[in-house]
Amino acid sequence: MPKLSFKAQVLQAREQAILDAVVRLLAEKGFELMTLDEVAAEVGIAKASLYKHFDSKESLAAAAMVQLLEVCLAELDRLASLPGLSAIERLHGVVRWALNTQLAGQMPTLPAQNSALRGALLADTGYLSRLDDVSERLGAWIVDAQAAGQIDARLPIELVLFTLFARACDPVLGVMRATGRYPDQTLVDWLLHTCFHGLAATAVALPTAQP
Q1: Inside any domain, residue 150
Q2: pLDDT digit string (tens) for 158-189?
Q3: What are the respective helix, strand and coil percentages of the chain, to the nearest 5?
Q4: Shortest CA distance to 66 belongs to which of 78, 54, 81, 52?
């Protein structure tokens, strides 16, 4: 692979800084409230410089979402490579990863049905391709967990999948964290418990916090 020129390396580093800033702002404010002026200010460049990399606010946000899905796919690869993990343990792992990503301020909120971002994402082949990859891999784990009796087999796979997606952006985590009363990993454990076991009193033990 040919070495990038110094100029290309600078542009690549700037583009990464732009995407990192967009992810933070999408997590903090959401797409509708995020402005290009804020993105430029976060990166420390002129607003006009953004257009050397992305031609619109929508394409900028879509690129950030593609990057997030690539990170998610890498985490799925990691979980799949761990020996001895059951399907339900892998699903626990990916939800834990998503919640910790939210704690780090790097999990954008889900776009609203009528959001301009939603329209841009549905038109972005790179985003749709990666979303399909994530959905198929999680779907296979859900099927295996249902076959093992660890997830209710009466539930449609899509319902379980969308529930996991929604939990990744669950506002309860931020609200509970803001109280300052509970350690972060305790909150993650509780949300994992309610995600997979609901609110009913059961004999299922609460998970133990992991580093």
Answers
A1: yes
A2: 999 999 998 888 889 999 999 999 999 999 99
A3: 65, 0, 35
A4: 54
